[in-house]
Amino acid sequence: MSNFTFNCSDVPTETATDAGVAGAGVLLSFIITAGISLLFSAIIIFHEMRLQKEAKVIRKLLLSLSDQQVITGIGIQCVGLAKMKSMVSYHFFIIWMLSLLSTATHISTLFALVNDFKRDWVLRWLRQFFMFVNLVLSCTSGIFVLMQVMKNLQPTLPIACVWEVESRGAPSNAGISIAGTIAVIAGQCIFFALGIWYLHINNARWIKLVQLLGLLSLVAIGTAAAVRVILVSQAFGSPSVPLSDEGEKAWNFGQLLTLLLLILPLISAVEIMRGEMNVPSPVAATSDDESAILLGDGKGGVVRSSFQPNPFWGNQQSRFSKW
């Protein structure tokens, strides 16, 4: 049984490092995955929109990177919430920024691979489930960050102390920080609702506009989160809290492992190029598909994308088709 006692009355002079959530390898893994995923999403959207060709290898890579990012994003947020009675706001804030990178990754993947998710109801509902879990965890973490700013919590106290201590008075920049935190939480809720709507919408007039505006917004969000992580982390920047050592700058097997996992999607790409693995087309190959939905191709023509309904309570057409 742990001997750890939760104490908010004694303020430590410094705090221990936590390479498991703020190590150089962990941060680089999230940043690189998000950057590559956003780039691949843009390539797929513009490639299939303008050239009407399927970027099969990149689509498979993007799906693998997105799956990896959303799982690790949920995992690291669970770690942060589980350790909230010992984790300081510095580490908790970094986790929250990493959750934004995870959000940018899987929402941009949704915009680029929407037809793949529409065609398979299992993939569609799994994606919606993980999006919802990530949203709940991220909003919960955002509330802790908001309370920490509003109460001006001592940086070396555990983040859970925001519910125990009295406010020390808002700092001079509290207004901007509070407004920014609320805007990020609200933005995540908006993107979640937009993603669910986009998964079921059939109206071709809005698809390109949603893809482009959504992708641009996600690039901005991902870039801002990555820059913020780099600036405030010990691994790459200057932390705002006194740390007891420089463990977050050290490279060990755990830090290297997070980066080595990025190689796994490349194996699938090699198998595809060698013909050992097939990737289904994002559009229906024939016109006799009863669940086919017409989408504009940007040249006055149409392509067909199938929508597989949920067999338990779905129907043959998206319930948002009238929009």
TrEMBL record:
<feature type="transmembrane region" description="Helical">
    <location>
        <begin position="88"/>
        <end position="113"/>
    </location>
</feature>
<keyword id="KW-0472">Membrane</keyword>
<dbReference type="InterPro" id="IPR053018">
    <property type="entry name" value="Elsinochrome_Biosynth-Asso"/>
</dbReference>
<feature type="transmembrane region" description="Helical">
    <location>
        <begin position="251"/>
        <end position="270"/>
    </location>
</feature>
<protein>
    <submittedName>
        <fullName>Uncharacterized protein</fullName>
    </submittedName>
</protein>
<feature type="transmembrane region" description="Helical">
    <location>
        <begin position="125"/>
        <end position="147"/>
    </location>
</feature>
<keyword id="KW-1133">Transmembrane helix</keyword>
<feature type="transmembrane region" description="Helical">
    <location>
        <begin position="20"/>
        <end position="49"/>
    </location>
</feature>
<keyword id="KW-0812">Transmembrane</keyword>
<feature type="transmembrane region" description="Helical">
    <location>
        <begin position="212"/>
        <end position="231"/>
    </location>
</feature>
<feature type="transmembrane region" description="Helical">
    <location>
        <begin position="176"/>
        <end position="200"/>
    </location>
</feature>
